[in-house]
Specification:
Helix content is 32%, strand content 20%. The chain is an alpha+beta fold and 467 residues long.
């Protein structure tokens, strides 16, 4: 199952072209990353997180934080977490490999391999992988429903969900479907003559040096334990689902570092052919020509000047995020042992701001934020450079205003952060930018308007209380 991530929509920094040289983390970067993870664990109550960072095509950090289970009070970076729907790209890779072997074609219809599937004579294999098959999803919930207390099999899932009427005609809509991936996994096993996991071990995991196991076996005192929380109540140990429920839709467990090895193979176009990687990462189009933002087992697209390949996952008691920035040969992986809160995506987003350098196109905003901070610091001292202000803003900053700014702000001490909190927007011929200033015990908002252009003057610079 996948809990949809907004990570790729909310990362504020972009990256520089050709920033491909591996660079070890500085002490300052390490401190910032540790703080990001620890603050989010504290904020949300999530017991632990395991992260892996790739920069310049090399793993530069694997680290685990917090409590992985009641029996593992000190987290281990090599511990395997359940990665859930991040597994889907591996199922897709299995089908691509079998296509290379000449044993199937992604344009083949499902009915060629499995009888009895609704619409099987019209659903192509690639539509299973791109969530455009029309097969009804068997696990849309963000919790373990009643049937999951008892073991099942892939056939059991197919019999209950893949023989229902289709939700839509194949290829006409995009709708996330774990059921489609269960069908895809069954086809892999029938064509390969072995289990899906063993096929992947032989063709993917062992060649890449990855240690991977079935998540149904990654239970007990030696493994991270899943946790849940009802609203804002206490964090509780969560009972795992019975065996067989995720299969090809999300059955894998591995460490963040092992998953990073796969992401590096993607960057370097190793193991799979370049054309196979490209097929996986090309967004599928619907029958009407509209885009989906999803390829074969991965979300893919572009925000600003940065390309990304991403997938999130949710198992019972676990959430995961894996994102690759192929042009920069960078990747961030965050695995947590809880199925509540946004900690996994917020950690990934904020770590990206530390690990990835800004794009030249963003330099103007960085400089504008730096200038706004400088004005704020001057106001804390009761002064302002009037050359930076328009006539109206100079009119606003009277001696009384400057003295009130000085007396009220200086006693707050040094702020912890000064950040742009909303994308700049036009209003009344000016550019509006809002900033948030954080202190230990309170926050302030700064609402600014400035002239357009590089040498813009401020029409407004107001500081006010925030929640």
């Amino acid at each position: 199952m996948q809990r949809f991530s907004s990570l790729v929509l909310t990362i504020a920094v972009a990256v520089m072209p050709n920033a491909a040289v591996a660079q070890a983390l500085t002490a300052d970067e390490t401190t910032k990353i540790d703080k990001i993870v620890n603050d989010n664990l504290s904020r949300t109550g999530v017991p632990s997180a395991s992260i892996a960072i790739v920069r310049g095509g090399q793993i530069i950090l694997t680290k685990a934080y917090g409590k992985q289970s009641e029996a593992i009070p000190v987290a281990r970076s090599e511990a395997p977490y359940q990665i859930a729907s991040v597994s889907k790209q591996f199922t897709a890779a299995a089908l691509l490999l079998l296509q290379r072997d000449g044993k199937l074609n992604l344009d083949d219809k499902v009915a060629k391999y499995l009888p009895g599937i609704s619409g099987g004579d019209r659903i192509a294999l690639r539509q299973l992988l791109s969530h455009t098959s029309g097969l009804q999803d068997y696990w849309p919930q963000d919790y373990s429903f009643a049937a999951m207390a008892k073991p099942t099999t892939a056939q059991g899932i197919v019999d209950r969900w893949a023989k229902k009427p289709l939700d839509y005609e194949p290829g006409t809509q995009w709708q996330y479907s774990n059921t489609g991936y269960v069908v895809a996994g069954m086809i892999v096993e029938k064509v390969a003559g072995t289990s899906l996991l063993e096929f992947l071990q032989a063709r993917v995991f062992r060649p890449l040096g990855m240690r991977v196991m079935n998540q149904d076996l990654a239970v007990g005192p030696a493994y991270p334990q899943g946790y849940q929380r009802f609203a804002l109540g206490p964090v509780r140990v969560e009972k795992p689902a019975a065996s067989g429920w995720l299969f090809a839709a999300g059955e894998l467990a591995m460490s963040a570092g092992d998953l990073a090895k796969w992401n590096i193979a993607r960057m370097e176009r190793k193991l799979l052919l370049a054309s196979e990687w490209e097929a996986q990462e090309t967004p599928v189009k619907l029958a009407d020509g509209s885009g989906t933002g999803y390829g074969l087992g991965v979300s893919t697209g572009k925000r600003g000047e940065r390309r990304f390949i991403e997938h999130a996952g949710e198992a019972v008691g676990f959430l995961s995020e894996s994102i690759v920035f192929p042009d920069e040969r960078a990747s961030i992986i965050v695995l947590v042992n809880s199925d509540f809160s946004d900690a996994y995506t917020v950690i990934a987003r904020d770590v990206a701001t530390v690990v990835l350098p800004p794009l030249a196109a963003d330099q103007s905003e960085i400089l504008r934020t730096t200038q706004a901070r400088a004005i704020f610091d001057a106001l804390r001292g009761g002064t302002i450079d009037r050359r930076l202000l328009t006539e109206n803003a100079n009119y606003y900053f009277t001696p009384t205003a400057l003295e009130d700014y000085r007396s009220s702000l200086s006693k707050l001490g040094e702020p912890k952060s000064f950040e742009l909190v909303r994308k700049p927007r036009l209003r009344g011929g000016f550019v509006n930018r809002n900033y948030r200033i954080s202190y230990e015990a309170r926050s302030l908002n700064v609402i600014t308007y400035s002239e357009p252009g590089e040498n813009a003057r401020f029409e407004q610079f107001l500081v006010m209380p925030a929640e």
